[in-house]
Amino acid sequence: MSRVTLLALQVLVAIVCLALWQLLSTVPVFGKILLPPFFFSNPVDVFAQIVKWFSSGVIWKHLGITLTESVLAFVIGSAGGVLVGFWFARQPLVAAVFDPYVKMVNALPRVVLAPIFALWLGLGIWSKVALGVTLVFFIVFFNVYQGVKEVSRTVLDNGRMLGMSERQLMQHVYWPSALSWMFSSLHTSVGFAVVGAVVGEYLGSAAGLGYLIQQAEGIFDVAGVFAGMFVLSAFVILIDFGVTLVERRLLVWRPTVDGRG
Amino acid sequence: MTTPTAVALEDAKVAFRLGDDRVYTAVEKAHLSVAQGEFVAIVGPTGCGKSTLLNVAAGLLKPAAGSVKIFDQPLAGLNRDAGYLFQADALFPWKTALDNVAIGLEIQGAPRAEALQRAQKWLTSVGLGAFAGRYPHMLSGGQRKRVALAQVLIRDPKILLMDEPFGPLDAQTRQVMGNLLLDLWNADRKAVLFVTHDLEEAIALADRVVIMSAGPSSRIIGDWRVSLPRPRDIFEVRLDKEFHALHREIWGVLKDEVMKGYAQSTQAAEAV
Fold first, then answer.
1. B231 touching A, CB under 8 A?
2. CA B120/CA A19 separation, integer angstroms
3. Per the CB 3.0–4.6 Å rule, which of A147, B151, B212, B251 could disulfide with A181?
4. What's the pLDDT tens digit per position in B101-149?
């Protein structure tokens, strides 16, 4: 299928969905409106709300806050995950001792930590960052741990035979291997950083996209809720696109997934 | 005049402890020496421990008994005089071909610019001058072996250890690689210990062919001198009468071991 046809079909899906939504929420079928406006709003109102946010500029502040929280959560969580992952992989004893606790904390649904973080860190951005960090940390941690442990024996022996010291093995073998695993989970970890931020905002905050959605919900402004959701989706897609660009640069040495090379 | 001995294994025994505390003896009483400038090939049936022996010479494995001497010095730790060409892909996948070759010099502390320049020369001499910027996955199996060869040779090791290096390649590529190896080797005649299961390859390349018996507890059971003239061309040498006579003679011994090795491996499979 050509790209143009594909794009046309993709757009068609959106148009059909929006048209159905608009139709069913405004035109009665057999004397009854199937999607009551109170619960479902309609695309025109939602779009108007989005336009209003952007034209008045309110949205930028909220987007900025959410973005800041996500970036901080990602950076701190990744740094922690890389450090601890490396440490555990190189010190099997430490890994063995901490193993049950790591599993326990990882098994915990992170959302329940949100109130604790709000209590400890207040309603500002840091309680959201903390929530995001707990999500990002484990993904990066497990990947780096795996990456360091699963360095190919042959590559490692080769490094040794080429005369690498432990430090040089770290720099030229363990580190790139661990990073490649971390980057392969980049989409997931960035996604979770955003989830942490938005869920944290939703549960208690004074700014951000989650706050916007929660506010709208509080006054039964369904158009506002949907508008917030659409802005959030667009936001995530944009970030994901950025991640793809970064990934393409960093993982040039990797074979492509479709098995070429 | 005696040429110095590059590698000397004396009564080397290699044993592994299995999971259930039994001890598996891979190689027993191996006595093998490689003189400086000599090309020795080890041939044996599958699972006879020929790679194990190579790892002992590399210092990657410690012998359970016996001694390993490198240039008359007992080997402690890794063999710093040796370059090792692995059977499996051992290139660093995150480095370009050029960086893969340069790394050996860089870790010795050579300035990067100089390392890269010499790496480029080496890539050219293995016929990959135009592929410097490619990552390993963008190269074919044969090209990767060429890069690996350059990676090892740029450090100018006194001893070259090769573990079925051309095993994964197709027949034609193997012959081309064999000739490339001989050409490069001819320039400065390092001591080479070359492990293979391919007798023809061994005779075509080496000065001496050593045969190992089927494992476990395999031993060195034969040692033939190959006096085919050098420089050789692998394609040509296979047509030589002497080559055929030698091949028939060695194969007479090797065949029994191959059958034994095969019988043992199928039995072992049935026991499991």
1. no
2. 62
3. A147
4. 999 999 999 999 999 999 999 999 999 999 999 999 999 999 999 999 9
For residue B93, give the nearest of B64, B52, B134, B57 by alpha carbon. B134
ipTM surpasses 0.85: yes
- Inter-chain contact B92–A161, Cβ cutoff 8 Å? no
Query: Closest chain A residue to B78 measured between Cα atoms?
Result: A161
Contact (CB<8Å) B84/A176: no
Name the band, by pLDDT with cuts 50, 70 and 90, for residue A256.
Answer: low
**B88 has a chain A CB within 8 A of its CB:** yes
pLDDT at B35: 92
Interchain contact, A253 vs B96, CB within 8 Å? yes
> Checking DSSP bridges between strand B23-35 and strand B73-74, what pairing results, if any?
unpaired
Question: Does A177 contact B at CB distance below 8 Å?
Answer: yes
How long, in residues, is chain B? 272
Residue A11, C-beta contacts closer than 8 angstroms, at least 6 positions apart: none
Residue B231: asked if its preceding bond is cis (omega within 30°), the reply is: yes
- In angstroms, how far apart are the furthest CA atoms of chain B? 57
**Min distance A255 CA to chain B CA atoms (Å):** 6
Contacts of A253 in chain B (CB under 8 A): 93-96, 135-137
Q: What is the pLDDT of residue A260?
A: 40
What is B142-170 written as a DSSP string? HHHHHHHHHHHHTT--SEEEEESTTTTS-
Nearest by Cα to B16 from B56, B67, B46: B56
DSSP strand pairing (B39-43 vs B208-212): parallel
pLDDT digits (tens, 9 = 90+) for A142-187: 999 988 888 889 999 999 999 999 999 999 999 888 888 888 888 8
Per the prediction, chain A carries an average pLDDT of 90
Q: Find, in chain A, the residue whose alpha carbon is nearest to that of B103.
A: A162
Which residues of chain B neighbour A157 with C-beta distances below 8 Å?
Answer: 60, 84, 86, 90
Q: B168 phi and psi, to 5 degrees?
A: -75, 0
Q: Is the pLDDT of residue A32 over 60?
A: yes
**pTM for the structure as a whole:** 0.80
Which residue from A122, A135, A118, A127 is spatially nearest to A77, judged by alpha carbons?
A135
